[in-house]
Amino acid sequence: MTIVTIALKADAALGECPRWQAAERRLYWVDIARSELHRLDPATGRNETRRFDAPVGCFAFTGDSGLLLGMKDGFALLRHWDGEPEPFGDPILAGRPALRMNDGRADSHGRFWAGSVNMEKSAQDAALYRLDRDGSVTLIEDGMLTCNGAAFDAGDRHFHHADTPSHMVRRYDVDPDTGTLSNRTIFHRFPNGEGRPDGGSFDAEGYYWSALFDGGRVVRLSPGGDIVQSVPLPVSRPTMIAFGGEDLCTAFVTSARTGLDEKELALQPLAGSILSFPVDVPGLPEQPFRPA
Predict the structure, then answer these.
(1) Is 290 part of any domain?
(2) What integer best gives the mean pLDDT of the chain?
(3) Is residue 12 included in any domain, yes or no?
(4) Which of 2, 195, 211, 217 has the highest CB neighbour count under 10 A?
């Protein structure tokens, strides 16, 4: 039986995007609903917070002390923890109030792949974008409500992401040199009523882990798309799983309180917390975005 522990009782409204900064031995994460960026030292329990004028949906490290942020209208560089966001690339979502940047991941070539979300669920106009090192942005795929779960396996051979309300995780072949996706297939379809695929990450064996929003668990899926492990959690709305610790054998899972009523929150005192548990197979180190 997997033992789940509390890494941080954060009470986050919409905790997301846990990312392990190996050089600092810290876990960075965001609370999207509160426009906050956090960094947690698991060894001491100290959690630092930055608040911005716009929500941060996702981010990548830039290989030094900085970060690339996916914000409300597009991307920005944060040169250091105490710096101010500097717009980077075109503000692709400017003038589109229902949309913001959501989930994203860097690949091994230093590019950043990020999806948007229609917060009002008013149209299927969310999309997946690729941000290249020179700041150019390419639309990869549209027609979604909530683009989520972006992750590359080792060597960038395959890319996975989900349109969360569809209950489906999609799989693509990747040409790592050109950043082209091809051969889209449905990797896994989760039954209605058992949770929707939110954030995900690969481990070193090529298995994909997915956090099931409103499913109260995270699952590990084989390269063939079969569920081989399910880890129940004391929260109904896990949002993202990623790996950290010295050996990348600690899973960190963010979660959300948003949308839960008082009765549900009373039954889930850990809603919004960051949870952790050990894994036998290490995760993959986070790749940095490398601006040209």
Answers:
(1) no
(2) 97
(3) yes
(4) 211
The DSSP code sequence of 49-109 is EEE-SS---EEEE-SSS-EEEE-SSSEEEE-STTS--EEES--TTTT-TTEEEEEEEE-TT
Q: Has residue 272 been placed in a domain?
A: yes
Catalytic residue, chosen from 31, 153, 163, 198, is 198
| Per-residue confidence (pLDDT) for residue 238, from 0 to 100 | 98
Say if residues 214 and 237 touch (Cβ distance below 8 Å): yes
User: Does residue 208 belong to any structural domain of this protein?
Assistant: yes
Amino acid 63: pLDDT: 79
165: three-class secondary structure by DSSP:
helix
CATH number, domain of 206, equals 2.120.10.30
- pLDDT at residue 12 in the model: 98
Q: How far apart are CA 201 and CA 252, in angstroms?
A: 11
One-letter amino acid for residue 270 of the chain: L
From the CB of residue 214, how many other CB atoms can be counted at a distance below 10 Å?
15
Assess whether 198 carries a catalytic annotation: yes
pTM, full prediction: 0.97
| DSSP run (H or E) holding 31 | strand 26-31
Contact call for residues 276 and 10 (beta carbons, < 8 A): no
State the pairing for strand pair 67-70/208-213: unpaired
Q: What's phi and psi for 32, nearest 5 deg? A: -60, -45
> Could you say which residues of the chain have pLDDT below 50?
none
Total number of domains in the chain? 1
Instruction: Write out the residue range of the structural domain in which residue 26 sits.
Output: 5-278
DSSP characters over 207-265: -EEEEEETTTEEEEE-TTS-EEEEEE-S-S-EEEEEEESTTS-EEEEEEB-TT--HHHH
Tokens of 140: 């990869």
Cα–Cα dist 222/215, whole Å: 19
